Amino acid sequence: MTSAMTTAMVKAEGVHKSFGHVQVLKGIDLEVKSGEVFCLIGPSGSGKSTFLRCINHLEKINAGRLYVDGELVGYRQKGDKLYELKDSEVALKRRDIGMVFQRFNLFPHMTALENVIEAPVQVKGVSKGQARERAMQLLDRVGLADKAGSYPSQLSGGQQQRVAIARALAMDPKLMLFDEPTSALDPELVGDVLDVMRDLAESGMTMVVVTHEMGFAREVGDSLVFMDGGVVVESGTPREVLTNPQHERTQSFLSKVL
Amino acid sequence: MTDIKKTDRPAETPPAGPEAIRAVPVRHYGRYVTAVVALTILGLLIWAFAGGAINWGAIPDYFFNDRILKGVRETLLLTFLSMLIGIVGGVVLAVMRLSKNPVTSSIAWFYIWFFRGTPVLVQLFVWFNLGFVFEYINLGPVYKDEWSDFMTPFLTALLGLGLNEAAYMAEICRAGLLAVDEGQTEASHALGMSHSKTLRRIVIPQAMRVIVPPTGNEVINMLKTTSLVAAVQYYELLRFAQDIGTTSGATVEMLFLAAAWYLILTSVLSVGQYYIERYYARGSSRQLPPTPWQRVRTHLTSLSSRKGVAA
Predict the structure, then answer these.
(1) Each residue of A196-234: pLDDT tens digit?
(2) Which residues form the ABC transmembrane type-1 domain (chain B) (predicted)?
(3) Chain A nearest CA to B282, separation (Å)
């Protein structure tokens, strides 16, 4: 990757978020470069999932600025005034950001194939035939071409998560968000999902991954951030942070999970 | 269920496992006693009715009488149209109630509070007697007429039942919409789908699984509740049956006849409900429950195979 060409896909400047009186994010500053795999680790309640959900505006930030691909998330700036985006404008931006959830959130009343073609057909207006063809390629890519006609309840957790990845990819996103994609899976099934993600990373996709899979982070990640209590405690390359943590809090966390 | 399992295994070659237990089963004497008591009471009841001065022959005589059949048609029509108003109104009210706009949600709340809180018979009478309050109905250039000409018994019945039903359907729909996991909405939004598309394509189809069973009950309830509109001069099954009863002198017999028709209609509706529920269950259970016809067939095949073993 040439450093001169890399631009920030996600840029956070002092991002704050609170739910009622509880402050979840207390000023997050970070930058995700285009084409990199960016891992977020930290104890539960540290705000890493909330931050991820702010990136595609599933949560509204209270203070700070958050940019995706150079554009402000959820707002439009005119002069020094901010205007909230309309729902339709937010939806338009979300098309380019794929998201994979901890609990898969596949549509249970649709088959795997129908799940994958739903958004391209309904949102982008792609013809059903074209969408189906592309969906079959994607299902094949995640190793589930033979499960196209199955309903989510007929699939294992790992298979469901791989369908969910294919569903997100069907919109041809420029950025993929993963919210603990393997946390709800049997240990045996984690590997299949990580393989798909590794393959995706190798294809050059920009990925922000909230994870507890330190092995994956070290092997595939380009950058890593350790969050705790709503702030970034430590950041660097995965190797630096995981093998030689500088901060005491990072050391005690890693000593428990590694 | 157990029959199917038995025949799945080839019966002529018992597995070469350990010897099966042959124990004397527990005798449930209490069950024998309750069965005898229940049967005795049932027998006495039948005996009492058989001894009553009931002209049973009148029922088949009038069963397919023209007026009765017209009554059945009117009852079905009224049920269908009232439920249509109820379901459409209920969906609108439920969405209003769940909307973030405080004005629409309060209006929906008030509507439901009012129409659920007053008896439907009272509502019917109110609609019927609104002529005392309004002399004319005036919708500007669209429509203008005397109230009594406009508010026919049919419209009274339809509005009374339909608007009341909308309040109940609103609560059923609201429960259904709330039952869909929030993650579904999030996933749909994350894919760039709009609010209305999310509702139409993702949430409502899943809510249907929760909405359909109580709606089936509502349809069956509505079919029976239509008998109330006899009070506002609308002629349907019960009213025709009563009329025939007074002219022919077979009052009770005609009530039995009406009851039989209601039973037939509700039974048919229950079968329809079963198939609709089955349709919306797709994806939620690994295998769809068998249709009644499929169940009959498996029972028949299991019977014949059992005979084959015995022979």
Answers:
(1) 999 999 999 999 999 999 999 999 999 999 999 999 999
(2) 72-273
(3) 6
- Which architecture characterizes domain B59-282 according to CATH? Orthogonal Bundle (1.10)
Residue contacts between A and B (CB atoms, under 8 Å): 75
B interface with A, Cβ–Cβ below 8 Å = 181, 183-184, 186-195, 197, 201-202, 205-206, 280, 282-286
Q: What pTM value is reported for the model?
A: 0.78
* Closest among B201, B197, B205 to B177, alpha carbons compared: B205
Is the predicted ipTM greater than 0.90, yes or no?
Answer: yes
Distance CA B264, CA A243 (A): 76
Reference A25, options A55, A63, A57; nearest CA is A63
Task: Write the burial class of residue B32 (CB in 10 Å: 0-12 exposed, 13-18 middle, 19+ buried).
Answer: exposed
- Residue A225's region, left for phi above 0, alpha for psi from -120 to 50, else beta, is beta
For chain A, count helices (H), then strands (E). 9, 12
Q: How close A111 gets to chain B, by Cα (Å)?
A: 8
* A209 sits in which H/E element: strand A206-210
Alpha-carbon gap, residue A166 to B153, rounded angstroms: 58
Lookup result for tokens 């074209």 = A130
Would you say residue A97 has pLDDT above 90? yes
Residues of A with CB under 8 A from a CB of B: 56, 58, 87-88, 91-95, 97-99, 101, 103, 105-111, 118-119, 122-123, 151-154, 164, 167-168, 171
Compare CB distances from A118 to B190, B201, B282 and report the shortest one's residue: B201
Which chain A positions have a beta carbon within 8 Å of B197's beta carbon?
122-123
Angle subtended by helix axes B153-179 and B204-225, to nearest 10? 150
Q: Domain residues of chain B, as ranges?
A: 59-282
Q: Cα(B220)–Cα(B217) distance, rounded to whole angstroms?
A: 5
Token pair in block for residue B138: 């005036």
Return all residues near A61 (Cβ < 8 A) that are at least 6 apart.
Answer: A15, A16, A17, A25, A54, A73, A74
Tell me the C-alpha to C-alpha distance, in Å, between residue B100 and each of A88, B95, B104, B145.
Answer: 17, 10, 8, 39
Distance from CA of B98 to the nearest CA of A (A): 17
